[in-house]
Amino acid sequence: MKEKEKLPGSRQRNVVDALKINGGVLAAFVLIFIISSLLNSRFLTVNNMMTVLRTNACTALCAFGMTYVILTGNIDLSVGSFMTLCGCLTSILIAQAGMHTFLAIGLSLIVALIFGAINGILITKMRIPAFIATLASMNVLRGACYVMTNGKPVVFSKGLFTSIGGGYLGIFPLPAVYMVIAFVILWIVLNQTKFGRRIYAVGGNQMAARYSGVNTDRTIIQVYMISGFMSAFSGILLISRLGSGQPVIGEGAELDAIASCVVGGVSMTGGSGTLFGTLIGCLMMGVISNILNLAGVNSYMQLIVKGIIIVLSVYIDILRMSLATRNKN
Amino acid sequence: MEEIILRMKDITKSFPGVKALKGVSMELRKGEVHALLGENGAGKSTLIKCLGGIYPIDSGSIELDGRKVDIRTPGESMKLGISVIHQELVLAEQLTVADNIFMGMEPANRAGFIDKKKIFGECEEILQSLNAGFHAYNRVFTLSTAQKQMLEIAKAINKQVRILVMDEPTASVSQKEVDKIFDLVRRLKSRGITIVYISHRMDEIFQIADRITVLRDGSNVATAEAESITQDELVHMMVGYDLEQYFARSSRKIGEVVMKGEGLTRSDGKVKDASFELRKGEIIGFAGLVGSGRTELVEMLSGIVPPGAGKLELSGRKVFFKNPRQALDAGICLVPEDRKHEGLILRNNVRFNLSIGILPHFIRWNYLGVNRRKEEEIAQKYIDKLAIKVSGQQQLAINLSGGNQQKIVLGKWLAASKDIIILDEPTRGIDVGAKAEIYALMDELTNQGKSIIMVSSELPEVINMSDQIYVMREGSICKVYRDRSSFDQQEILRYMLGLQ
After folding, report:
1. Are B492 and B469 a contacting pair, CB within 8 Å?
2. What is the membrane topology here (chain A) (predicted)?
């Protein structure tokens, strides 16, 4: 390929770079999409596409936050608990305290930010490994939610709150709209700001970042706040869509989010990966489970397929990497 | 030249159980190259980490331009114009050169948005002024060690550095690239930047330094003008005693050929058609630049990478090693270049590391039931034999100095009594005293009838220790010296560089 006058840092170069990095997952996604369209006539319909978007928007929101966390070389297992806690908290505030919907959502998101910060503080200031710290907060937050709700669903009436997660903008389900907005904002933050560079720096080499004067602790605390915020928002949407505050939602959501990142090519050791990759990874998992649904494959089978996809996508990535290093030599 | 820019006075620093600095004082003049010398553990690294804000000092004072300063974090040190290039390069490998150079000080507007054009533009400018030979958008993992070293320098320049501390910048860099780094150091000096230069290589220090400060055991022994001091005096100051014979060599009784390689070739092309002979009781040295295929060759000999073509014979018997286990069973062991990652289990203790190669010697009944007493005996035997300085068998390998770590890797294979020992850069990053001990040990091993293959980038070491020298260049052996009397340092260097 001829390297034309692609100025480093120019938009053109960015697009080329992004394609280079995400080419594999994008190609896989397109392939699966085409095969699905050919296999089942009910797949490529507006209705079905909207279903795919609606059912996966919540996972995508969590996965975006998770991408930030993983890029710093950490992990967040408490995502599902944030969903439950903040979702149920919102419904209690609305249904039982009679609070205004937006105020209730705002309060719940603030709670999420606080607990996110606590996650970050446990990891940075108290030096508890991220896996363990968030495993602990996963239990604590879910427990808190059960205590708060007494383990029973919180019932609320149809109204503003239900339409926030269940409504539509034209033909587009609102969660999908939020997903797009969140993607754009988070993409800009990650790629165009100082904070974004620092996330990559911390994950790329925490020591280098610290020696370069980056406040690594603060960066890590901030990504956990973002992850908490995103998952809480996702939980609020889910509960609004379901129509009642179920304390059991979000079980395993952290694993779906991690899977999206991994399939999307985000390195678990940090420092490498893109938000776009995560989005495609999430949509790919969504499309696969959708086509399996349409084909009448039961959900137990689907779990097996999911697992195989994760292994395959990472293995292909490893092959690509070793091929690239061989070419280099 | 006489203007004093930085003055460190009576610096002390303690860690749990150790007093690393016991009142060190040092003065830096503007625009000088000031070498900092001392054995490992003498306090050099601690001192520069204090200067770089990694460790806060316990007592003493640091004055910059005659004004007392308080350095508590890397950020504060940087703001004062002090930049430290650490020995273990700290770079984010996955990121681009530009990302690394601007890390922590990305040009951004008030809202925090970065200016990518500016970053790449300024970065290219710096790289060009350094004649670096790589670009802002290159990812760091694609660079060579010397290029990474230059990237660290570029990073420091970008921070408007006034005092640049370089901790063993040439430790894993070949001769040709050393010259490039020196060139750069001289240019920085001419810009009025003060350089603190730490190295174990004596010849380098005399080439580059204006003044030399020697540390020993957490105190400074002396500061001297480089011109007014000899190498022997320096060594004496560093270790506190005279080194009678640096390179140990007894008269060797060389026997029959024990290992023979013919036309060894790797399928990845990193080694082409390499042939050699190793006799009982001798040391053969492989000289060459970094990347010339020496490490790749010994990887074939030790079963890490099976050869793609060619023949390997042990005492006339053809062998083919598919994995390191087979090579070990045949009596060949490798002391790898990267001892921290490939030679030791750092987070485990000295005893564990010494005995890991000989588990069946003290674990009975089908690998059940550890005979702890026997294991301790074996470990103690090699700790004593190799004079490894440890606080006890339980000390973790990670807390030892480079020289002692290397001795443990050696001890591991001595315990396993292998006949052919391959040493890849055996003295890299090891101080003078420990080097002499390693040389003596190598000599003793040959006396016991063992054969040694040594890969080394230090020519004096290759020339003084070897019985035969093979010079490698671009994957092939380009010159063989079969006889000690024919060794010629200048000629070897020319072959290494491809000038002959």
Report:
1. yes
2. Multi-pass membrane protein
pLDDT tens sequence across B282-318: 999 999 887 889 999 999 999 999 999 999 999 999 9
Least Cα separation, residue A207 to chain B (angstroms): 6
Q: Give A158-198 as a DSSP string.
A: SSHHHHHHH-EETTEEHHHHHHHHHHHHHHHHHHHBHHHHH
Q: B75 contacts in A (CB within 8 Å)?
A: 213, 215
Name the residue among A212, A272, A328 with its Cβ closest to that of B142: A328
Tell me the average pLDDT of chain B: 86
Closest by CA to A233, choosing from A52, A63, A75, is A63
Complete domains list, chain A, with CATH:
43-317 (1.10.3470)
Is A161 at the interface with chain B, CB within 8 A? no
Place of tokens 């894993």: B172
Q: Which tens digit of pLDDT belongs to each residue from A8-49? A: 445 555 666 667 777 788 888 999 999 999 988 999 999 999
Per residue in B222-256, pLDDT (tens digit) is 888 888 888 878 877 876 655 556 777 788 888 99
Where are the strands (E) in chain A, listed by range?
Answer: 154-155, 168-169, 172-173, 244-245
| Half-sphere exposure (Cβ direction) of A29: Cα atoms closer than 13 Å | 21
Q: What is the pLDDT of residue A231?
A: 97
ipTM exceeding cut-off 0.90 for this assembly: no
Nearest residue to B185 (alpha-carbon basis) of B153, B214, B159, B155: B153
CB proximity list for A227: less than 8 A, separation 6 or greater: A62, A65, A66, A68, A69, A76, A79, A82, A116, A119
Percent of all residues in chain B with a pLDDT value above 70, rounded to a whole number: 96
* Closest alpha carbon within chain B to A10: B117
Q: List CB contacts of B28: < 8 A, sequence separation 6 or more.
A: B4, B5, B6, B7, B34, B163, B194, B196
Q: Where residue B274 sits, what CATH number does that domain have?
A: 3.40.50.300
Cβ of A187 under 8 Å from any chain B Cβ? no
CB-based contact A204 B98, cutoff 8 Å: no
Q: Which residues of chain A have pLDDT under 50?
A: 1-9, 329
Does residue B224 share a domain with residue B273? no
Based on the structure, what is the number of domains in chain B? 2
- Cα of B206 vs its chain's centroid, Å: 19
Name the residue in chain A with its Cα closest to that of B141: A325
- Note whether B451 and B306 are same-domain residues: yes
- Shared domain check, B109 and B36: yes
pTM above 0.80, yes or no: no
> Which residues in chain B are contacts of A328 at CB distance < 8 A?
142
CA atoms within 13 A on the CB side of B286: 29
Of A13 and B269, the one with more pLDDT: B269
Q: Are B464 and B283 in contact, with CB atoms under 8 Å apart?
A: no
